[in-house]
Amino acid sequence: KSSGAVPATTLLAIIGLWFLISVPLCFIGSFFGFRKPKIEHPVRTNQIPCLWEVIWGNKVYYLFGFAALVFVILTITCSEVTILLCYFHLCAEDYHWSWRAFLTSGASGLYIFIYSIMYFATRLQITSLTSTVIYFGWSGVMSLMFFVLTGTIGYFACLAFIRRIFMSIKVD
């Protein structure tokens, strides 16, 4: 009796169309496609190395190692800065550390967005409104993702630090 319900006959018709039209056409198309000769280009093409072949082949691609090293350095830096500022706040008897730890470490996402604004103003030659909206939309999304990533790193580092501090305190 629901207005959103699909009748069984309609569902069977869709499944029938899929099995009787779509699946046979897929196999017929692949049969004729594999029988065609390869496309010959009129010029010699350069074999551009693809990342997928590098990943699954026996070749070394150093970017992943550098990216992992940069991520480790980012994690250590976010953790140390957040722990240090959290320690200063705890010394001042300010126990509201959780959001402050997240925002302290996540502020680097704001820096990235400010840099994208400066890059847009000084380097890019974008004049259309659509391209500008797309650029700032994606820059905002990337900055927000980086904000959440670094904020989470800082929060969990500060949480581990505070737990470690309170585990070492002896209460009589």
UniProtKB/TrEMBL annotation:
GO annotation terms (biological process): protein localization to membrane; vacuolar transport
Pfam families: EMP70
Alphabetical keyword list: Membrane, Signal, Transmembrane, Transmembrane helix
Keyword match Nucleus: no
Principal place of residence: membrane
Membrane topology: Multi-pass membrane protein
Membrane listed as a keyword: yes
Protein name: Transmembrane 9 superfamily member
Organism: Funneliformis mosseae (Endomycorrhizal fungus)
Source taxonomy: Eukaryota, Fungi, Fungi incertae sedis, Mucoromycota, Glomeromycotina
